[in-house]
Amino acid sequence: MTYMRFKGIGVSPGIAIGEASLAEKVLFTAKKDIIGTDEVENEIKKLQSAILQTKKQLTHIKNQVKKKIGKDHSFIFEAHLMLLEDKSLCRDIEKIIKRERAKVEWAISRVHDKYVGIFDAIEDEYFKQRKSDVTDVLSKIYRNLKSIKQEKKDEDSESILVAHDLLPSEAAMKLGKGNVLAVALDAGGQTSHTAILARSLNIPAVVGLHEITQKVSNGDLLIVDGTDGEVIINPPLAIRKEFLSKKRKYDDYCRELKKTATLDSITLDKVRFYPMANIELPEEVKLATSMGAEGVGLFRSEFIYFQKSSLPEEEEHFRIYSQVAKDAFPSPVYIRTIDIGGEKNLPQLNIEKEANPALGLRAIRFSLQNKELLKVQVRAILRASTLKNVKILIPMITEIEEIEEVKMIISKAKNELRKEGRQFDENIPLGAMIEVPAAAALTDIIIKEVDYISIGTNDLIQYYLAVDRSNELVSYLFKPLHPSVLRLIRFVIKTVQKENKEVTVCGEMAADPLSALALLGLGLRKFSMNPIFIPRIKQTLRSVEHKKIEEIVQNALTFKTAQHIEEYLLEQILVKYPKAFLMGKNN
Ligand code: PEP
Ligand code: MG
């Protein structure tokens, strides 16, 4: 019962204390058992009945997940069923059985190695996901051959799930059961399927722990701190007490904060602000609303593509957008056209790898080179706009011509829909994301072409300060409170407001209390963020007087460095409004 502590990446906040349950891992055999020619047929029969059983199980899981977590998480099982239907995977296994006169277990192991090798060579994040799908399906067939029990007897008791990595179907199935207190993984990152799912389901999760599966045994007592990204194995009493109290404080804090959901979004001096949600999955709308979101300020529609092995069709887009619009009604929903290309590759499209993906064929650039794809999306957004609460948002605008092209596509789509006699919002608002500094400098011209502006600070800061937003080596330079960044944002906000149009911020900056106050002081009223941060920001903004914050921020802008600005803001705000940071700046 050795006591150990591990640092990883906290991808879903909160603290859980409980017993470890290690996910069972299928190890494909390395032993080649040779069979007689007369046994070949029997081996193939074994394979076919394992495949049949796998199909049945997958269909059952798909229906269960659809019922318990939502239709969008069940896509993954459709993809797996398609892999089985596709036959080439199964034919490959059969071929090896026949050609090498080997047992089916060995044949599966060889096919698995082959596919893993192919995917590894491609070295692409999204292809890697497809690799895990193949592993997932083959493991299920393998398990069915060997009749390894799918779950342990105590599958319903509460525990902390520890695994090397979770295959997408495992994540949906295990987390959907409601008995997982927290998740700790060797592998993974912020945008992994498990991380997104854990956040949607409010389950604390730490990933990127490297070797946690080798250090933990079933039944070990674990603490998972998803807020600070730490996992503690067999903590002594004093540590347990410390974390129990931290957990209590955190839970009280969340409960307390959640109460703000029903309170008005106004500052002490009655200035109205609007907290909105950034979502990736349609079923997040309900959680977001319960957290106090007044609409969806950013729907990252590319996630519809990530969950499928084929290209989603117009009807599927339409179904998802209509659902989001209905769930958020009467609040607005800003649907961003897909932001893929560059690093966010799609296996369905086979996009070429680029030397500088962040500066490459991304977002609207990609969509304008794949206009048919964009039109499908635009038609679906238009069709979902009948409640008149839907807006179109275009990512990564760099020049006016891009907006003009998009407008032409929208106009064409509208004409088609009119001819087809379909309903849509004739005045659906069109917005541009300001993420490229060149577009920020052009705000006065861009705003005349669109109905509103959404500032994507994640990319804007990356491109303005020349700091890769996902590179740990330079993360210390990624400073939302950099004087240049604040000046640029001030320019964008003021320019839009001069035209009496709407401006929102939908980058992570809006979710940080101090930065959100800086934005309030710069004139911002619409803040869009990951829903779990909405109560905290609402509490912060409700605790201050807008007039005073405006003065403080104006003074802060006279300082030369981000550090001075941060220190000044913190000091001034803490003295005047101690309630603004209920649990400190970063909690
Ligand atoms: C942004 O860049 O700030 C943004 C919200 O878009 P994403 O994080 O999806 O790039
Ligand atoms: Mg962006």
SSE blueprint:
Layout (H helix, E strand, L loop, with lengths): L3 E4 L1 E4 L2 E8 L17 H29 L6 H11 L2 H13 L3 H19 L2 H22 L12 E5 L4 H9 L3 E6 L7 H9 L3 E3 L4 H4 L5 E5 L4 E4 L3 H22 L15 E6 L4 H7 L5 E5 L1 H5 L7 H15 L4 E4 L26 H7 L1 H13 L6 E5 L5 H20 L10 E5 L2 H5 L1 H7 L2 E4 L1 H8 L18 H16 L3 E4 L7 H9 L4 E4 L4 H9 L3 H11 L5 H15 L11
Parallel strand pairs: 3-4, 4-5, 5-6, 9-10, 9-16, 10-11, 11-12, 12-13, 13-14, 14-15, 15-16
Antiparallel strand pairs: 1-8, 2-6, 3-7, 7-8
This protein binds phosphoenolpyruvate (PEP) and magnesium ion.
Would you summarize the structure shown here?
The protein is α/β, with parallel strands linked by helices. The chain is built from 23 helices and 16 strands.
Total helical elements: 23
User: What is the name of the CATH class of the largest domain?
Assistant: Mainly Alpha
Net shape:
globular
Helix-strand makeup class: alpha/beta
Biggest sheet statistics? 8 strands, mixed
How would you write the strand order of the largest sheet?
A: 1-8-7-3-4-5-6-2
